[in-house]
Write a structure and sequence with these properties.
about 400 residues, Cytidine Deaminase, domain 2, 11 strands
Protein backbone atom coordinates (compact mmCIF):
# COMPACT_ATOMS: atom_id res chain seq x y z
CA UNK A 1 0.00 0.00 0.00
CA UNK A 2 1.50 3.40 -0.92
CA UNK A 3 2.61 5.66 1.92
CA UNK A 4 0.05 8.37 1.10
CA UNK A 5 -2.76 5.75 1.14
CA UNK A 6 -1.71 4.49 4.56
CA UNK A 7 -1.62 8.05 5.85
CA UNK A 8 -5.19 8.71 4.69
CA UNK A 9 -6.61 5.47 6.02
CA UNK A 10 -4.76 5.48 9.35
CA UNK A 11 -7.47 7.36 11.29
CA UNK A 12 -10.08 4.83 10.15
CA UNK A 13 -8.16 1.60 10.70
CA UNK A 14 -8.59 1.82 14.45
CA UNK A 15 -12.32 1.22 14.08
CA UNK A 16 -11.61 -2.27 12.87
CA UNK A 17 -9.52 -3.18 15.91
CA UNK A 18 -10.87 -5.43 18.63
CA UNK A 19 -12.05 -3.51 21.68
CA UNK A 20 -10.48 -4.49 24.98
CA UNK A 21 -12.01 -3.72 28.35
CA UNK A 22 -11.64 -4.95 31.88
CA UNK A 23 -14.36 -7.12 33.36
CA UNK A 24 -15.29 -4.34 35.81
CA UNK A 25 -15.98 -1.83 33.04
CA UNK A 26 -19.35 -0.42 32.05
CA UNK A 27 -21.46 -2.11 29.33
CA UNK A 28 -19.77 -2.36 25.96
CA UNK A 29 -22.42 -0.09 24.46
CA UNK A 30 -21.32 2.79 26.70
CA UNK A 31 -19.61 5.90 25.44
CA UNK A 32 -19.99 8.03 22.35
CA UNK A 33 -22.84 10.27 21.28
CA UNK A 34 -26.41 9.21 21.86
CA UNK A 35 -28.24 7.84 18.83
CA UNK A 36 -31.69 8.32 20.40
CA UNK A 37 -34.10 10.11 18.07
CA UNK A 38 -36.59 12.22 20.00
CA UNK A 39 -40.18 12.19 18.76
CA UNK A 40 -43.51 12.70 20.45
CA UNK A 41 -44.06 8.93 20.59
CA UNK A 42 -40.85 8.06 22.40
CA UNK A 43 -40.74 11.29 24.43
CA UNK A 44 -43.97 10.34 26.16
CA UNK A 45 -42.41 6.95 26.98
CA UNK A 46 -40.01 8.77 29.30
CA UNK A 47 -41.49 8.57 32.79
CA UNK A 48 -40.91 12.24 33.83
CA UNK A 49 -42.42 13.55 30.57
CA UNK A 50 -45.44 11.28 30.87
CA UNK A 51 -45.79 12.13 34.56
CA UNK A 52 -45.68 15.89 33.96
CA UNK A 53 -48.16 15.77 31.07
CA UNK A 54 -50.47 13.44 32.98
CA UNK A 55 -50.36 15.63 36.10
CA UNK A 56 -51.36 18.75 34.17
CA UNK A 57 -53.93 17.12 31.88
CA UNK A 58 -55.61 15.08 34.63
CA UNK A 59 -56.01 18.04 36.97
CA UNK A 60 -57.22 20.49 34.31
CA UNK A 61 -59.70 18.08 32.74
CA UNK A 62 -61.16 17.07 36.11
CA UNK A 63 -62.06 20.65 37.12
CA UNK A 64 -65.69 21.64 36.52
CA UNK A 65 -66.37 24.41 34.03
CA UNK A 66 -68.81 27.14 35.06
CA UNK A 67 -70.61 29.65 32.84
CA UNK A 68 -71.08 33.30 33.89
CA UNK A 69 -72.66 36.42 32.41
CA UNK A 70 -71.16 39.87 32.81
CA UNK A 71 -73.57 42.52 34.01
CA UNK A 72 -71.65 45.75 34.51
CA UNK A 73 -69.28 45.30 37.41
CA UNK A 74 -70.99 42.14 38.65
CA UNK A 75 -71.15 38.64 37.31
CA UNK A 76 -74.05 36.26 37.39
CA UNK A 77 -73.58 32.47 37.42
CA UNK A 78 -75.62 30.59 34.83
CA UNK A 79 -76.83 27.09 35.55
CA UNK A 80 -77.36 26.39 31.84
CA UNK A 81 -74.64 24.19 30.33
CA UNK A 82 -73.68 25.21 26.75
CA UNK A 83 -73.86 22.48 24.13
CA UNK A 84 -70.11 22.81 23.53
CA UNK A 85 -69.42 21.62 27.09
CA UNK A 86 -72.17 19.03 27.17
CA UNK A 87 -71.19 17.02 24.08
CA UNK A 88 -68.04 18.72 22.77
CA UNK A 89 -67.16 16.14 20.12
CA UNK A 90 -68.63 13.14 18.38
CA UNK A 91 -67.18 10.41 20.61
CA UNK A 92 -66.01 11.79 23.95
CA UNK A 93 -67.24 13.59 27.02
CA UNK A 94 -65.99 16.90 28.41
CA UNK A 95 -63.22 15.33 30.54
CA UNK A 96 -61.76 13.40 27.61
CA UNK A 97 -62.14 16.41 25.34
CA UNK A 98 -60.25 18.70 27.70
CA UNK A 99 -57.63 16.02 28.29
CA UNK A 100 -56.89 15.74 24.57
CA UNK A 101 -56.53 19.49 24.31
CA UNK A 102 -54.05 19.78 27.18
CA UNK A 103 -52.01 16.76 26.06
CA UNK A 104 -51.68 18.27 22.59
CA UNK A 105 -50.50 21.58 24.05
CA UNK A 106 -48.09 19.94 26.51
CA UNK A 107 -46.42 17.64 23.96
CA UNK A 108 -46.59 19.71 20.78
CA UNK A 109 -47.07 23.23 22.10
CA UNK A 110 -50.34 23.69 20.18
CA UNK A 111 -53.91 22.43 20.20
CA UNK A 112 -55.76 22.63 16.88
CA UNK A 113 -59.53 22.24 16.96
CA UNK A 114 -61.77 21.86 13.93
CA UNK A 115 -65.27 23.30 14.37
CA UNK A 116 -67.65 20.65 13.06
CA UNK A 117 -71.01 21.98 14.25
CA UNK A 118 -72.57 25.36 15.09
CA UNK A 119 -75.84 26.51 16.61
CA UNK A 120 -78.34 28.69 14.65
CA UNK A 121 -76.50 31.83 15.84
CA UNK A 122 -73.18 30.55 14.50
CA UNK A 123 -71.50 29.69 17.80
CA UNK A 124 -69.55 26.38 17.95
CA UNK A 125 -71.26 23.41 19.55
CA UNK A 126 -68.74 20.73 18.53
CA UNK A 127 -64.97 20.91 18.14
CA UNK A 128 -62.73 17.99 17.18
CA UNK A 129 -59.10 18.23 18.31
CA UNK A 130 -56.77 17.41 15.41
CA UNK A 131 -53.48 15.58 15.54
CA UNK A 132 -50.85 18.35 15.47
CA UNK A 133 -48.73 16.19 13.13
CA UNK A 134 -51.45 16.62 10.49
CA UNK A 135 -51.55 20.43 10.77
CA UNK A 136 -49.20 22.92 9.16
CA UNK A 137 -49.50 26.70 9.52
CA UNK A 138 -48.19 29.24 7.01
CA UNK A 139 -46.96 32.04 9.28
CA UNK A 140 -45.59 34.31 6.56
CA UNK A 141 -48.28 36.82 7.48
CA UNK A 142 -48.82 36.35 11.25
CA UNK A 143 -51.93 38.54 11.14
CA UNK A 144 -53.60 36.21 8.62
CA UNK A 145 -52.08 32.74 9.05
CA UNK A 146 -53.13 29.98 6.67
CA UNK A 147 -53.96 26.59 8.17
CA UNK A 148 -53.49 23.29 6.34
CA UNK A 149 -54.81 19.95 7.55
CA UNK A 150 -53.47 16.81 5.85
CA UNK A 151 -52.23 19.00 3.01
CA UNK A 152 -55.53 20.79 2.39
CA UNK A 153 -56.18 24.42 3.27
CA UNK A 154 -58.82 24.95 5.94
CA UNK A 155 -60.80 28.15 6.40
CA UNK A 156 -59.35 29.99 9.39
CA UNK A 157 -62.85 30.53 10.81
CA UNK A 158 -63.14 26.76 11.26
CA UNK A 159 -59.96 26.46 13.34
CA UNK A 160 -59.64 26.94 17.10
CA UNK A 161 -55.92 27.32 17.79
CA UNK A 162 -54.58 27.34 21.36
CA UNK A 163 -50.77 27.74 21.50
CA UNK A 164 -48.70 27.31 24.65
CA UNK A 165 -45.51 29.43 24.40
CA UNK A 166 -45.42 31.72 21.35
CA UNK A 167 -42.49 33.83 20.19
CA UNK A 168 -43.20 37.40 19.01
CA UNK A 169 -44.06 37.56 15.33
CA UNK A 170 -45.12 33.90 15.31
CA UNK A 171 -48.45 32.12 15.47
CA UNK A 172 -47.44 28.53 16.23
CA UNK A 173 -46.32 27.75 19.76
CA UNK A 174 -42.97 26.18 20.55
CA UNK A 175 -42.98 22.40 20.72
CA UNK A 176 -41.44 21.26 24.02
CA UNK A 177 -40.35 17.97 22.45
CA UNK A 178 -38.49 19.81 19.68
CA UNK A 179 -37.19 22.71 21.80
CA UNK A 180 -35.82 20.46 24.52
CA UNK A 181 -34.88 17.47 22.40
CA UNK A 182 -31.42 17.28 24.00
CA UNK A 183 -32.83 17.17 27.54
CA UNK A 184 -35.51 14.60 26.71
CA UNK A 185 -33.03 12.65 24.56
CA UNK A 186 -30.62 12.50 27.49
CA UNK A 187 -33.33 10.94 29.63
CA UNK A 188 -34.14 8.41 26.93
CA UNK A 189 -30.44 7.62 26.55
CA UNK A 190 -30.03 7.06 30.29
CA UNK A 191 -33.07 4.77 30.31
CA UNK A 192 -31.73 2.78 27.35
CA UNK A 193 -28.30 2.67 28.93
CA UNK A 194 -29.70 1.23 32.15
CA UNK A 195 -31.71 -1.33 30.20
CA UNK A 196 -28.56 -2.31 28.32
CA UNK A 197 -26.65 -2.57 31.59
CA UNK A 198 -29.04 -5.07 33.12
CA UNK A 199 -29.67 -6.91 29.85
CA UNK A 200 -25.99 -7.37 29.02
CA UNK A 201 -24.86 -7.82 32.62
CA UNK A 202 -22.29 -5.06 33.07
CA UNK A 203 -20.43 -7.22 35.63
CA UNK A 204 -20.77 -10.91 36.48
CA UNK A 205 -22.82 -11.58 39.64
CA UNK A 206 -20.01 -13.39 41.44
CA UNK A 207 -16.50 -14.83 41.16
CA UNK A 208 -15.62 -18.41 42.17
CA UNK A 209 -11.86 -18.82 42.43
CA UNK A 210 -9.74 -21.94 42.96
CA UNK A 211 -6.25 -21.14 44.23
CA UNK A 212 -4.67 -24.55 43.85
CA UNK A 213 -5.91 -25.94 40.55
CA UNK A 214 -6.07 -24.60 37.04
CA UNK A 215 -9.60 -24.93 35.62
CA UNK A 216 -10.11 -25.37 31.90
CA UNK A 217 -13.06 -23.71 30.14
CA UNK A 218 -15.25 -26.82 30.14
CA UNK A 219 -14.75 -27.38 33.86
CA UNK A 220 -15.38 -23.72 34.57
CA UNK A 221 -18.66 -23.86 32.65
CA UNK A 222 -19.81 -26.98 34.52
CA UNK A 223 -18.90 -25.48 37.91
CA UNK A 224 -20.72 -22.28 36.99
CA UNK A 225 -23.86 -24.20 36.00
CA UNK A 226 -23.84 -26.20 39.23
CA UNK A 227 -23.34 -23.10 41.32
CA UNK A 228 -26.17 -21.28 39.52
CA UNK A 229 -28.54 -24.20 39.99
CA UNK A 230 -27.86 -24.32 43.72
CA UNK A 231 -28.48 -20.60 44.05
CA UNK A 232 -31.74 -20.78 42.07
CA UNK A 233 -32.89 -23.76 44.15
CA UNK A 234 -32.11 -21.87 47.37
CA UNK A 235 -30.11 -24.84 48.66
CA UNK A 236 -26.99 -24.64 50.84
CA UNK A 237 -23.75 -24.05 48.99
CA UNK A 238 -20.86 -26.33 50.05
CA UNK A 239 -17.38 -25.17 49.09
CA UNK A 240 -14.32 -27.37 49.64
CA UNK A 241 -10.78 -26.28 50.32
CA UNK A 242 -9.01 -23.72 48.16
CA UNK A 243 -12.27 -22.21 46.86
CA UNK A 244 -13.03 -18.53 47.33
CA UNK A 245 -16.54 -17.26 46.51
CA UNK A 246 -16.99 -13.49 46.12
CA UNK A 247 -20.30 -11.90 45.18
CA UNK A 248 -20.08 -8.80 42.98
CA UNK A 249 -22.51 -5.91 42.97
CA UNK A 250 -22.65 -2.48 41.41
CA UNK A 251 -24.49 0.22 43.32
CA UNK A 252 -26.91 2.17 41.14
CA UNK A 253 -25.64 5.37 42.78
CA UNK A 254 -22.04 4.42 41.88
CA UNK A 255 -23.00 3.77 38.28
CA UNK A 256 -24.77 7.18 38.22
CA UNK A 257 -27.99 5.71 36.84
CA UNK A 258 -30.25 6.97 39.62
CA UNK A 259 -28.54 10.35 39.90
CA UNK A 260 -28.67 10.96 36.16
CA UNK A 261 -32.33 9.99 35.96
CA UNK A 262 -33.18 12.20 38.95
CA UNK A 263 -31.38 15.16 37.40
CA UNK A 264 -33.16 14.63 34.09
CA UNK A 265 -36.54 14.39 35.85
CA UNK A 266 -35.84 17.67 37.65
CA UNK A 267 -35.01 19.42 34.38
CA UNK A 268 -38.20 18.13 32.75
CA UNK A 269 -40.20 19.29 35.79
CA UNK A 270 -38.77 22.79 35.27
CA UNK A 271 -39.87 22.72 31.61
CA UNK A 272 -43.47 21.94 32.56
CA UNK A 273 -43.52 23.91 35.80
CA UNK A 274 -44.53 20.94 37.96
CA UNK A 275 -43.13 20.08 41.39
CA UNK A 276 -39.99 17.96 40.71
CA UNK A 277 -40.80 15.44 43.43
CA UNK A 278 -44.05 14.53 41.62
CA UNK A 279 -42.19 13.27 38.52
CA UNK A 280 -39.21 11.57 40.15
CA UNK A 281 -37.00 14.64 40.50
CA UNK A 282 -35.53 16.35 43.51
CA UNK A 283 -36.83 19.57 45.01
CA UNK A 284 -34.29 22.34 45.35
CA UNK A 285 -35.42 23.46 48.79
CA UNK A 286 -36.65 22.17 52.10
CA UNK A 287 -40.03 23.96 51.97
CA UNK A 288 -42.83 21.54 52.80
CA UNK A 289 -46.55 21.92 53.31
CA UNK A 290 -48.27 20.35 56.25
CA UNK A 291 -51.75 19.98 54.78
CA UNK A 292 -53.24 18.56 51.62
CA UNK A 293 -55.06 21.85 51.04
CA UNK A 294 -51.82 23.86 50.96
CA UNK A 295 -50.25 21.33 48.60
CA UNK A 296 -53.23 21.67 46.26
CA UNK A 297 -53.08 25.46 46.47
CA UNK A 298 -49.38 25.44 45.60
CA UNK A 299 -50.05 23.18 42.60
CA UNK A 300 -52.81 25.50 41.37
CA UNK A 301 -50.75 28.68 41.74
CA UNK A 302 -47.44 27.42 40.35
CA UNK A 303 -48.53 24.90 37.71
CA UNK A 304 -52.17 24.93 36.68
CA UNK A 305 -53.18 28.60 36.67
CA UNK A 306 -51.45 29.53 33.36
CA UNK A 307 -53.05 26.55 31.62
CA UNK A 308 -56.49 27.37 33.03
CA UNK A 309 -56.28 31.03 32.00
CA UNK A 310 -55.33 30.13 28.40
CA UNK A 311 -58.25 27.72 28.09
CA UNK A 312 -60.70 30.10 29.77
CA UNK A 313 -59.70 32.93 27.43
CA UNK A 314 -60.18 30.79 24.31
CA UNK A 315 -63.45 29.19 25.42
CA UNK A 316 -64.90 32.54 26.50
CA UNK A 317 -64.38 33.91 22.98
CA UNK A 318 -66.56 31.06 21.71
CA UNK A 319 -69.47 32.02 23.99
CA UNK A 320 -72.27 34.39 22.90
CA UNK A 321 -72.63 37.95 24.16
CA UNK A 322 -71.38 38.68 27.66
CA UNK A 323 -71.04 35.05 28.67
CA UNK A 324 -67.70 33.62 29.70
CA UNK A 325 -66.37 30.47 31.36
CA UNK A 326 -64.24 29.80 34.43
CA UNK A 327 -62.79 26.65 35.94
CA UNK A 328 -63.90 26.00 39.51
CA UNK A 329 -60.55 25.74 41.29
CA UNK A 330 -62.28 25.19 44.62
CA UNK A 331 -63.00 21.65 43.48
CA UNK A 332 -59.31 20.84 44.08
CA UNK A 333 -59.28 22.20 47.62
CA UNK A 334 -59.74 19.07 49.72
CA UNK A 335 -60.15 20.18 53.34
CA UNK A 336 -61.09 18.42 56.54
CA UNK A 337 -64.74 18.22 57.52
CA UNK A 338 -64.26 20.66 60.41
CA UNK A 339 -62.46 23.25 58.23
CA UNK A 340 -65.13 22.93 55.54
CA UNK A 341 -67.99 23.43 57.99
CA UNK A 342 -66.25 26.42 59.58
CA UNK A 343 -65.86 27.99 56.13
CA UNK A 344 -69.55 27.39 55.42
CA UNK A 345 -70.45 29.06 58.72
CA UNK A 346 -68.39 32.15 57.84
CA UNK A 347 -69.95 32.42 54.39
CA UNK A 348 -73.45 32.22 55.88
CA UNK A 349 -72.70 34.71 58.64
CA UNK A 350 -71.11 37.22 56.26
CA UNK A 351 -73.95 36.87 53.77
CA UNK A 352 -72.11 35.97 50.59
CA UNK A 353 -73.73 32.53 50.36
CA UNK A 354 -77.16 31.31 51.27
CA UNK A 355 -78.10 27.96 52.77
CA UNK A 356 -79.17 26.39 49.51
CA UNK A 357 -75.81 27.28 47.93
CA UNK A 358 -73.94 25.73 50.87
CA UNK A 359 -76.11 22.63 50.69
CA UNK A 360 -75.35 22.35 46.97
CA UNK A 361 -71.62 22.32 47.79
CA UNK A 362 -72.28 19.39 50.11
CA UNK A 363 -74.39 17.60 47.44
CA UNK A 364 -77.60 18.15 49.40
CA UNK A 365 -80.99 19.16 48.01
CA UNK A 366 -82.36 22.71 48.65
CA UNK A 367 -84.47 23.39 51.68
CA UNK A 368 -88.26 23.32 51.20
CA UNK A 369 -89.86 26.68 50.28
CA UNK A 370 -90.40 28.96 53.22
CA UNK A 371 -87.53 27.63 55.33
CA UNK A 372 -85.02 30.35 54.41
CA UNK A 373 -82.81 28.43 52.03
CA UNK A 374 -82.59 31.38 49.62
CA UNK A 375 -82.01 34.08 52.28
CA UNK A 376 -78.57 35.68 52.55
CA UNK A 377 -77.30 36.60 56.00
CA UNK A 378 -78.65 35.62 59.39
CA UNK A 379 -82.19 34.32 59.53
CA UNK A 380 -84.67 36.35 61.59
CA UNK A 381 -84.93 35.09 65.13
CA UNK A 382 -87.82 32.77 65.79
CA UNK A 383 -90.60 34.30 67.93
CA UNK A 384 -90.28 33.52 71.64
CA UNK A 385 -92.92 31.24 73.14
CA UNK A 386 -95.67 33.02 75.09
CA UNK A 387 -94.87 33.69 78.73
CA UNK A 388 -96.57 31.48 81.28
CA UNK A 389 -99.52 33.12 83.10
CA UNK A 390 -101.27 32.20 86.32
CA UNK A 391 -104.31 30.94 84.39
CA UNK A 392 -102.11 28.76 82.18
CA UNK A 393 -100.37 27.39 85.28
CA UNK A 394 -103.75 26.53 86.90
CA UNK A 395 -104.89 24.75 83.73
Amino acid sequence: MPRWTRALTAPFRRFGEVAKRAITSLPWSAGGPSTVTVSTANAVSLVPVFGAVRLIADNVSSLPLQLFRRDGSSREPISFVPALFWAPDAFGDLVTWLHKCVVSMALRGNAYGLITQRDPLGFPTMIEWLNPDDVWVDEYNPVKPVYYWQGREVDRSLIVHIPWVVMPGRVVGLSPVAAFAHTIGAGLAVTEYGRSWFRNGGTPPAVLKNGSKAINPDEAEEISDRLSSRIRARKPLVIGSDWDFTALSVSPEESQFVESMRLNATQIAVIYGVPPEKVGGESGGSLTYSTVELNSLDLVNTTLRPWLVRLESTFSRLMPGREYVRFNIDAMMRTSTLDRYNAHGMSLAQGWRNRDEVRALENLSPLPPGQGGDIYGALPAAPAPPAATAENQED
